[in-house]
Amino acid sequence: MKHIRKTALALAAAMAISTSAFAQVYVDVPENHWAYQAIQQVTDKKWMGGNTQNQFKPNNTIDYFYFSQIAAKIAGYKDPLVDSSVSEEEKQFSQKAIDTYKNVLDSYTKSFSKWDKSSNEEIAYLLQKGVLKEADLPKFVVKQESGEESVLSLRREDMAVFVVRLMGKENEALKKTGSTGFSDDDSISSSAKPYVLYLKNAGVIQGGTNVKFNPKDKVTKAMLAKVLADALKPAGNTGTGTTAPSAEKTETSTPQKEVYLQGTVKKFYSNLYYILLQYGENKQSYYYIKKDAPIFINNKETNIETIKEGDTLLVELIEENGQQRISKITILESAKSNNTNTNTNNTNTNQQNTTSPSNTTTPSNSSQNSQGTTDLSSTKRIDGIVDFVSENGRIDIVVKYVDYKGDIKETVETYTVGQSTVITKDNKEVALSKIQKGDIIIAEVRGSTLYKAAIMEKQRKVEGTLAEKKQTNGTKIIVLENSKGEKTEYQITSETIITKKSISNAAWNDLRIGDKITLDLEYDKVIGLYAEGSFSEVKGVVQEILISTSQSKITIELSNGTTKTYPLLSGAIIKKDRGRESGTIYDVRLGQEVELALDSLEIEEMILKDQTKVRAVQGYIENINFLDDYLDLRTSDAYGSKRIQLDKDVEVFRGTRRLSRRDLEEGMLVSVTLRSYGSDQADTINILAEK
């Protein structure tokens, strides 16, 4: 398979070379296209290209595998099957990368059926170069609880990270922290912000007042071409001085050892100057902090007590006596900044050495200076439950923290509420008197003063659409999706009262994907669940069938050309159109027309139509008309003779040899792949036998 793909790439490369002398002209990229120049540049450099119909497909989104193939070429990767100029030294470097990461990539190949193992050599090369990290690999393919896999599209913030690494500017980027200046800065992952900021300062991406970066948006081919062209200009052509990596130079060098590490605090022992950092997806390491290490937050120096579990840190590592130690810490993002998190099991490591779990304590006011002003660097977040509220502005909050043994402990902390304190409830500012014992509180405090708080009643309602239901180790869990597209899991217990419109004595099995759900919560416990379903009918052509012991799914193409996936209800009725006899999911065929009766979004009944729209057809050529662009094919099935539209861009093969449509003759046995189910447009034609 690898050899076949490389042969195809070699053919594409040869075609690109044959046209590059005249400058590649893409029929779908006119000269007034916003990325026209960039697309020409990446084509000339042979970083990216189009198809044999001279189409670049600028609006197509790209996945992480496709990006890896592009990035590897930029970083200097050469494949002997494609490039005969590869040197022995380059071969050795590539082989070392393959050997180093073989076990890692083999594990992903075995775990995911949709993992593109033909890209493993390029991915290994990028891992060896440091352009990719092992923590990036889980982003390539994801597997749902049902077992269904999805190849993910490259996201804008990840593109920024990878491009900065390609530029060789990662260490430089990580030295600069702070806001990116984009209006959606809060939506950018903290680990990606330094890279986005670097590209912005370098003029590769534009920003300003009220400009969004849209970090989670998918990357299109045109967008990537523009970023690569601007970021990797030769030295002297840009004011930023950024340069494309030299293939000759980078092939022989070894990956530069990282001086900076960015991660999240998992455990912190301030009295021992010992910290556990999590970085990437699955990596954790303990580090000692040098006692003279400076610590910064918001460009202001602070002390070690400011660090809390959950904080995102940028640390500078130095090696002393064969051991890595932290010589500098910058707090990039404090755990307090997640103002929407209502989890009361928040850890508060600052209490490890200052409070006793069994006593009510008043935090010291040592964070205030001699002038009585509050040190902003001492701000911390408190998540907890209101225990007591006095009329004179005192509030007691029950909080949980993790002690040095890793055990969860509980304590009561007392704070003073001043006249300038802002308290909100349901996004409206309220007075202190509106806070009740038992309310959930998410507060920001400085010293012993509470200056900002959001209140939620212990009993509240949550609305959304049922996106998924599952059982894990006997625990029933539903996933609700709100109007913003955010998904949250809720545990359904035996005490949860389930009701559903039009159903008496409703139970767990009566819930359907797509139901409108209202939850009655007491803290995070689901007390009541009300569901409302809907019934509808749809028709379409089967595009994909997923058979699973948990829940099978059918993907169909609707009449408007869109595709949608519907779960198959356990015990769903399946009937064959002819005679209406019963059928099973194993009777469903790709390309078959179906009628679905839906309970919300789950298939309650499916009728299999007799008509099947084929994607491929085989037969003998009876007649060819090149003037009107069609051929008549005599088949041995029920179709008899079928007319196939023969556009000029149709691909014709005899074995692995590419031919033109003019090589087709009457009497030939051919296999025709159509552009879509039910289409009469030929996409490719394979000659099976001469006349």
From TrEMBL:
Residues 337-374 have a biased composition (Low complexity). The keyword Repeat applies. It comes from the Bacteria. Residues 22-85, 179-242 form the SLH domain. InterPro entries: SLH_dom. Residues 235-255, 337-377 are annotated as: Disordered. Keywords: Repeat, Signal. It comes from Defluviitalea raffinosedens. The lineage of its organism: Bacteria, Bacillati, Bacillota, Clostridia, Lachnospirales. Residues 1-23 form the signal peptide. This is SLH domain-containing protein.
